[in-house]
Amino acid sequence: MVTREDIENIALLSKLFVDEKDLDKLTEEMQKIVEFADTINKVEVKTGEFDNINNLSNVFRKDEVRESLPVEEILKNAPEQAEDHFLVRKRA
Amino acid sequence: MTSQIRKIHDMLVSKEISCVELTKKYLAEIENSNKELNAYITVTPDVALAQAKAVDEKIARGEEIGLLEGIPMTLKDNISTKGIETTCASKILTGYKPIYDATVYELLQEQGVVMLGKTNMDEFAMGSSCETSYYGGAKNPHNTGYVSGGSSGGVATAVGASLAVYGLGSDTGGSIRQPASFCGIVGLKPTYGAVSRYGLIAYASSFDQIGPITQSVEDAAIVFDAIAKYDEKDSTSQGGEATLPTLENDIKGKKIGIANQYLNGVREDVKEAVLSAAKQYEDMGAEIIYFDLPELDFALPSYYILAMAEASSNLGRYDGIRYGYKAEHYNGTHDMICRTRSEGFGKEVQRRILMGTYVLSAGYYDAYYKKAVNLRGAIVEAFDRAFEKVDVILAPTAPVTAFENGYLFSDETDQIEQYLSDICTVPVNTAGLPAVSVPCGVDEKGLPIGMQLIGKKFDEKTILNLAYRYEQAVDNFKETKWGVKL
Fold it and tell me: What is the pTM of this model?
């Protein structure tokens, strides 16, 4: 059973802000999704071997020094920036 | 349907039309109909015309041009394009202009692409109708009262309505094949690892794959062969095998499997259309083999658990600091990030992040995430066993045809029903297999029905060969009233 407290807890972990007035509806929706997910627990499977689709392992490239993206280009997309840095204000 | 790419290529080479004229035709039709169809989020006339001009100059110099050179196309708006807004149809990425190109777009630029713009999609590719888009859904070109399908709905609408010759979409749980099926065109989801995903904005990384949406099977083969290249920037990349050389091969003696479970719960007319295609294959000398694949019964819930878990991690990067939307008012860093994400993400995306966090959290991890991973292993093995007996598997692409606008989000429909509509497409992503959707009929409302051919890993050539032979025998492509007529 999914409770309001569960939703508040996972919202905190997910860094999502859930409005008090939406909490009941969201709890109900999540309960339905969890019930749907729960159907897998009715299945008995003996296998458990799955790592990745094409069984690749240790995919490394050569550790070569390459040119990085220019700082001013990267900062262009930042909502706020100052002196070659991302800017995060305490409050706004 | 015959290859539109070859047709236009011949027109360009014979100078029947210049590439700039051609591109202007497409831009004009997009201008005319995008308000109604909502296929494009961003149209890029400057980029397209500059690219077209370069092709014309090459032709004028008497140089040979490649098949894809000068062919106007579109990219789903989750494929990064340097300096061109890439939104994932989300408010949280409004104004975001990537500083690099996705590998697929780089490869196409080397081939002389003309990129008309970026197309609509479900927000972060999470949806089956294109309606979770912040910009509203793309409409079905066969009837605008119905959805395009999703998540690559904008590409499917654009290609179905001849507002682009072809497009690239992405398929995590059916997002290329289902909208292609709803819009009556061809959609290829390649093998996991065949096409580089560098620059594709991630939803669920162990499922995501880029592939072509086209009007004809041959076009899908042409585009696939151009983009299925190994890329060191994607650690899962392996590249693909060329499909064009064997496209026209005889299919006599090919073994086509039909898993009984794929037909469960499928609407009667859709089932009939698929079975009549099976009959067609038999007439062409292929063998139809019915078999059981009981593992399909738990493919859907296990897929959603894993996809949501991966999404909750992938979408952790949207914090309002480095790019995209940022909340206007807040008190403290945690509050700023929470408000940014709650205001920036739509409802469906938030539900999936919450659910993903839930199945990964202490106390639930073993019961949900770990169990779903184990089931994934069982599904992979079940397909491996099936492919010992058959060359391809034939199945419906979706259990129904296009939904009416708003249906999935009306009060009577709960969100589980939306998830259930992905039942036929999801198992392919779970097992990392290639599959192509081709039109196989229409329903009583005139809406297209699609079927998919599912192949062994990295065996795109066999499914495209079989799709091509079917399409040459039974042409189910229906032109719409929209777009460029050539």
Answer: 0.97
